[in-house]
Design goal:
zinc, seven-stranded antiparallel sheet, binds zinc ion, alpha+beta, DNA-binding
Length: about 425
C-alpha cells in the first residue's frame, strides 16, 4: 500500500527570504486572479474557457511582458501550480462540489507550492530545506520526515511561515488490531455519539475563541478604517482565527485517532455538509426560512469540521487496515431500532428518543448511531446503500452489486 503523508514545520526564514516569500505568494495570487478574471471575461463573451496549456502560454507572456516584469522573479512552477489550482476550482464547481472560484485576497491563504521534487532538497540533519529561488531555509525540526518527498507547500498563517512536505512511501498492507464495528451519529449539541454509548462533546476551546473573536471584531468596527489601531485590531483578529484553526485541528485529530485506534470499521452518515450549510442562506429572491436559527446550526456544523473529520478518519483507517463506511443518513434519527417504526414524533426532544409505536426509549443520538451501525452492517453483508465519495474513495467500502436481502432493507428503507 502507498502511504501519503504530510509533515508541517514552522519555517525560520531570514529577512530577505521572508520578503521573497511574501512576493512569491503575492505573485501567485496575482496570477490566479488575473487568470480568473480572464476566464470570466471569456465566459461573458461566450468564448470557451482556456485550458491549462493555454493559461501557461499566457503566463509566459506575462512573465516576459513589460507590464508585470516582477513576475519573472517568482519561481515558475509555483505560478503554474496556481493555474492548476484554478483549473481544479473550476472542475470542483462544475462537479457541484464547490462554489464558483473566488478572487484571492491578500492575507487569505497566502501560499505557494513547489510541485517538482527534483528541485527540492531536504537536509534533515541540519534542519533546512532547499527551495528554488529561496535557497536553504531553516525550519523548526520537530519530527522526522519519512518517505520520498513529492511536493512542498509554503504558507503564511498569522505571522508565521510554514512548510508542508508531502511524502510517499510503500508500506505493507496493515491489519487493523481491533475487530469491532461502530456506528457514529454526528450532532450539533454534541460533536458525535457512538453506538457503543459514548458521547463526544464538542471542543469548548472553540466556543471560547469564538467569543474572543466576536469581541475583537466589535473592537475593530469602532476603529477608524486603515488607522494604526485598526490595523492592530485586524492583526489581532487574524491571530484569533489562527488559534481557532489550531484548536479545531487538534480536537479533530485527537478524536479521529482515538476512534480509528479502537474500531476496525466505522460507519458514518454520508452528510452533504456543503449543502447543509448552503440551504439556510437561500438566495436574494428566495431567502431561506429560519435563516437566523439555521445559520447558528450551520456555523456549528462548519466549526466542528465534519468534512475534515471524515477525511482524517478515512486516511487513518486506511493506514491501520480498517475501513470507513458512509451510509445514507435519511431517517437515522427517526427510526425505532426495536420495531422499525419511522416517525418524526419518535423524537420530540433533542435528547430523548421514544417510539410512538412500541414505546422503546433511548438516548436520541446513541439511538441514531445504532441505526447508522445497522445500515453499516447491511452494507457489509451485501452491499447496500453506500455512497462513496467520488473524488476521495479511500477507505470507503466499494458497493458490491448483489441482490438486496432482508438486511439491506434497513439501509435502503431509511
Ligand atoms: Zn418502536
Amino acid at each position: 500500500m502507498q502511504q501519503f503523508q504530510a509533515f508541517k514545520f514552522e519555517l525560520r526564514p531570514d529577512g530577505q527570504q521572508e520578503r521573497q516569500m511574501r512576493r512569491f505568494a503575492g505573485s501567485c495570487r496575482f496570477v490566479f486572479n488575473k487568470a480568473l478574471a480572464l476566464q470570466k471575461e471569456r465566459y461573458e463573451q461566450g468564448e470557451k474557457k482556456l485550458g491549462y496549456a493555454g493559461l501557461c502560454k499566457l503566463l509566459t507572456e506575462w512573465r516576459n511582458g513589460p507590464e508585470t516584469p516582477w513576475l519573472a522573479k517568482a519561481p515558475t512552477h509555483p505560478l503554474q501550480q496556481t493555474l492548476k489550482d484554478l483549473e481544479r476550482a473550476y472542475a470542483n464547481f462544475f462537479a457541484k462540489r464547490a462554489d464558483f472560484p473566488r478572487f484571492k485576497k491578500k492575507g487569505q491563504s497566502d501560499s505557494f507550492r513547489y510541485p517538482d521534487p527534483k528541485q527540492i532538497k531536504l537536509d534533515q540533519s541540519n534542519s533546512r530545506i532547499f527551495l528554488p529561488k529561496l535557497g536553504w531555509v531553516r525550519y523548526r525540526n520537530s519530527r522526522k520526515v519519512v518517505g520520498e518527498v513529492r511536493n512542498v507547500t509554503v504558507s503564511l498563517s498569522g505571522r508565521r511561515w510554514h512548510v508542508s512536505i508531502q511524502t510517499r512511501q510503500e508500506i505493507e498492507d496493515p491489519r487493523h488490531p481491533a475487530r469491532s464495528i461502530v456506528g457514529m451519529d454526528m450532532g450539533v449539541a454534541c460533536f458525535a455519539a457512538l453506538s457503543s454509548g459514548e458521547i463526544i462533546a464538542p471542543a469548548h476551546a472553540l466556543k471560547k475563541r469564538q467569543r474572543q473573536l466576536a469581541r475583537a471584531q466589535r473592537a475593530m468596527s469602532r476603529k477608524v478604517k486603515f488607522s494604526n489601531n485598526w490595523k492592530k485590531a485586524k492583526a489581532r483578529i487574524q491571530r484569533i482565527h489562527t488559534r481557532i484553526g489550531h484548536a479545531r485541528r487538534d480536537f479533530l485529530h485527537k478524536t479521529s485517532t482515538a476512534i480509528s485506534q479502537n474500531h476496525a470499521v466505522v460507519v458514518i452518515e454520508d452528510l452533504q455538509v456543503r449543502n447543509m450549510s448552503k440551504s439556510a442562506a437561500g438566495t436574494v429572491d428566495l431567502p431561506g426560512r429560519n435563516v437566523r436559527a439555521k445559520s447558528g446550526l450551520n456555523r456549528s456544523i462548519l466549526d466542528q469540521g465534519w468534512a475534515e473529520f471524515r477525511r482524517q478518519l478515512e486516511y487513518k483507517q486506511t493506514w491501520r487496515g480498517g475501513m470507513v463506511i458512509a451510509v445514507n443518513p435519511r431517517n437515522t434519527s427517526r427510526m425505532c431500532p426495536a420495531c422499525g417504526h419511522v416517525d418524526k414524533a419518535n423524537r420530540k426532544t433533542q435528547a430523548r428518543f421514544k417510539c410512538v409505536a412500541c414505546g422503546h426509549t433511548a438516548h436520541a443520538d446513541v439511538n441514531a448511531a445504532n441505526n447508522v451501525l445497522a445500515a453499516g452492517h447491511a452494507v457489509m453483508a451485501c452491499g447496500g446503500d453506500v455512497r462513496p465519495r467520488p473524488h476521495l474513495g479511500v477507505g470507503t467500502a466499494a458497493p458490491m452489486k448483489q441482490e438486496p436481502t432482508e438486511a439491506t432493507q434497513i439501509a435502503s428503507a431509511n
